[in-house]
Amino acid sequence: xxxxxxxxxxxxxxxxxxxxxxxxxxxxxxxxxxxxxxxxxxxxxxxxxxxxxxxxxxxxxxxxxxxxxxxxxxxxxxxxxxxxxxxxxxxxxxxxxxxxxxxxxxxxxxxxxxxxxxxxxxxxxxxxxxxxxxxxxxxxxxxxxxxxxxxxxxxxxxxxxxxxxxxxxxxxxxxxxxxxxxxxxxxxxxxxxxxxxxxxxxxxxxxxxxxxxxxxxxxxxxxxxxxxxxxxxxxxxxxxxxxxxxxxxxxxxxxxxxxxxxxxxxxxxxxxxxxxxxxxxxxxxxxxxxxxxxxxxxxxxxxxxxxxxxxxxxxxxxxxxxxxxxxxxxxxxxxxxxxxxxxxxxxxxxxxxxxxxxxxxxxxxxxxxxxxxxxxxx
Length: 378
Description:
The protein is of the alpha/beta class. It folds into 2 domains: 55-129 and 368-377; 131-358, no CATH class. It has helices at residues 8-65, 203-206; strands at 77-83, 91-98, 104-113, 116-128, 131-132, 137-141, 144-146, 150-153, 156-158, 163-165, 168-175, 179-181, 184-187, 207-210, 213-216, 218-219, 224-225, 245-248, 252-254, 259-261, 263-266, 270-272, 278-280, 288-290, 294-296, 303-305, 309-311, 315-317, 325-329, 332-336, 346-350, 357-358, 369-377.
């Protein structure tokens, strides 16, 4: 009797089952490998985003070292966005927010890499080697008289000699030599101690250094500056003179409609002798530095100075008949006299904290601040 052959159908079924199991295992492996690849790519992008955010904080430190960057006293300052490299879609933005502690800030960098966002933050403080003038007018040596036509919106201090006031002082008036008041003083606390009066050396402005680059003042040799002269109308600021410094001759006058973006430095006297003059310095620079007297003539009408005035011997009348009108939006720093009763006309001096923050031009790099990182975290 012949034996039956093995069940070929069962063998085929077993082969198919094994093949299905193999396909399933291979598919699972490939799927897992794909998932691992995507996870790895996502992790790499997330890591890159974190490093980009931390790079943004390093960039913020560099930006904040520049003292001309005006940091907020309230609210927030947003900077950026900045690409990681040219034509890159990976970017970061920087936000600077005051903490409420003097000169202390929270800095946040938000990075985006291929749609993945990461944030890093730090707490820093910024100090500068610059000069900060907190008074609207500060004078080293008097006596000094504030004329009746002068309004000072801010504080005034006199280190020696008596301060006599006929004008309006909307702030605190202090004088080591005492005060006689015939006008208006908002706050007269009595008693005073000497304060440091910044000194300005005109030679420091002839050749200077900002952000590692050399600056050279424009040498203006005419005795009179007018609108048509080269330094006016924004032409003083150049790559070789980023502060827009103009070196003028002793006894120089500024006349009608002259508009200057920059700083006028004169080793001697300077006269405002025309109408509609506008002087606006670059941030961190004063508007005027003169080692003599700043004279205001009767022709000086509707004159605006948007910055600090450092006049060694004060502000005095030129030819004055009561028609002059000058507005100074920044502090006045004098070594002697300040003002006299002979200064007629209508003049306003407004305190401006930003314009009272000036570079120390005797420092090697006057525009560089010192940044101290107090806390760094993601």
